[in-house]
Amino acid sequence: MAELRKFRTEELKARSGELHCGDKILVTGTVYTARDAAHKRFAALLDEGKELPIPLEGAVIYYAGPTPAPEGRPIGSCGPTTSGRMDRFAPRLLDLGLGGMIGKGERSQEVRDAVVRNKAVYLCAVGGAGALACNCIKSCEVIAFEDLGCESVKKLYVEDFPLIVADDCYGGDIFSSGRAEYCTAE
Fold first, then answer.
1. Residue 182 has pLDDT above 70, yes or no
2. Which residue intervals define the domain Fe-S hydro-lyase tartrate dehydratase beta-type catalytic in the entry (predicted)?
3. Phi, psi of 20 (to 5 degrees)
């Protein structure tokens, strides 16, 4: 098995050329959680010409809605949500400087094109393993839309968070290539 390469979140966009569809990596640094409701508010703020509550340039958004933290922990279970629900918002955010996204599931062609156009990356976390993923999260701070509860925007610090490159800046897509390799038409 190949050694897992380590990346800092703030370097992901600049080093996206080193990442290829199917690569398994460990990520350390700041990620922001944002799901459907937060993305709708992001769009409204942008439409009004206002700033977002997160710095977009090179940022990484994790599509997750963590559960409350048990005593002595920074966060509860924190697994990925289905990324496709954010597809209508993602190209705009990528065009404004977003460096990467973490979630689960296939993305639309528009998102894949925006990943290539902006030399960004889409990473998949293991769905159903939120209780294990939370062990990589060392801090959690609500930074926007507290009224959304678990869907509020949170700033997380992760260490050695295991991810798979799903869409790379060359147009590689793990879902398309996986179907081509493992599915046969009858």
1. no
2. 10-177
3. -130, 150
Q: What digits encode the pLDDT tens for the residues 76-98?
A: 889 899 999 999 999 999 999 99
**CATH code of the domain covering residue 88:** 3.20.130.10
| pLDDT of amino acid 178 | 61
Structural tokens at position 136: 């990589």
Domain that holds residue 113: 5-183
Specify the residue for token string 């940022």. Answer: 59
How many CB atoms sit inside 10 A of residue 34's CB?
30
For residue 130, pLDDT beyond 90: no
Number of domains in the chain: 1
Instruction: Answer for the pair 153, 33: CB distance below 8 angstroms, yes or no.
Output: yes
Q: Is the pLDDT of residue 75 over 70?
A: yes
Residue 24 main-chain phi, psi, to 5 deg: -105, 125
SS3 state of residue 74: coil
Which amino acid is it at 3?
A: E
